[in-house]
Design goal:
- By secondary structure, the protein is an all-beta fold.
- It contains no helices and 15 strands.
- The protein has a four-stranded antiparallel sheet with strand order 1-2-3-4, with no helix packed on it.
- A hairpin with a 2-residue loop joins strand 9 and strand 10.
- The protein is globular and about 45 Å long.
C-alpha cells in the first residue's frame, strides 16, 4: 500500500527486462542499478530496459553508489557450508565494471546486511552481532555495539546516518 502527501503525483511499477529476482538496488543519478539473486547486476532505465553490467559472487543484500562506483554487499550463496561462508563487498567502478574488488576479502565477516557510504568510509550493519562497523582504508572499526539486529542504512546529504534496528523496532539517527 502506498501512502502519499498532497504533492505526490503517482507511482509506477518498473519491471526490469532481466532474468531473476531483484535483491538490492541503488540509484546512480541516471538509472536504477539492480542486483539479482544470482549476482547479476543490471542498469535499468525507467521504461524497464535492462542491460547487464557485471556479475558478483554471493547473494546481494544491499547496495550503495558513489559518483564513480557501486558497492554490492553479498551474503554467502545458499547451499552447503564451504568453510568460506563470509560476506563479500564488491566495489565496482562504473567506468570499468570488469575491475571488481572484494573489499572484505581479508576480514572474514558474516551476518552483514546493510550498507551506506559516508564520506571516505563505508558503514556496514552486522545483523547477527548487533554492531555497526566502519570500513576505511581496508580497516574495520566498530562504531556502535549493543544493537538488536541492525539492518538497513541510509545517509543524508548532510552526513546524518539512519539505521534500522530491526530487533528493537527503532530507527537510530547517527550524527556526523
Amino acid at each position: 500500500m502506498l501512502h502519499h502527501s498532497d504533492d505526490y503525483q503517482r507511482s509506477e511499477i518498473v519491471i526490469p527486462e532481466a532474468e531473476g529476482v531483484p535483491m538490492a538496488f541503488a540509484w546512480d543519478s541516471e538509472a536504477l542499478l539492480i542486483a539479482m539473486h544470482d549476482g547479476a547486476l543490471y542498469r535499468v532505465d525507467m521504461d524497464g530496459t535492462a542491460t547487464e553490467i557485471t556479475r558478483v559472487q554471493g547473494t546481494p543484500v544491499g547496495m550503495a553508489t558513489s559518483a564513480d562506483s557501486v558497492h554490492v554487499l553479498c551474503a554467502p550463496s545458499p547451499g552447503p557450508a564451504t568453510g568460506d561462508d563470509y560476506n563479500r563487498l564488491w566495489s565496482i567502478p562504473l567506468t570499468d565494471t570488469n575491475a571488481t574488488t572484494d573489499l572484505l576479502q581479508d576480514h572474514k565477516l558474516a551476518g552483514l546486511n546493510g550498507i551506506t557510504l559516508t564520506g571516505s568510509s563505508i558503514l556496514l550493519s552486522d545483523f547477527n552481532g548487533g554492531r555497526l562497523l566502519s570500513l576505511r582504508s581496508n580497516r574495520i572499526r566498530e562504531v556502535a555495539a549493543g544493537l538488536t539486529n541492525p539492518s538497513q542504512l541510509a545517509t543524508t546529504d548532510t552526513g546524518d546516518t539512519y539505521l534500522a534496528d530491526f530487533g528493537a523496532g527503532a530507527i537510530h539517527r547517527l550524527l556526523p
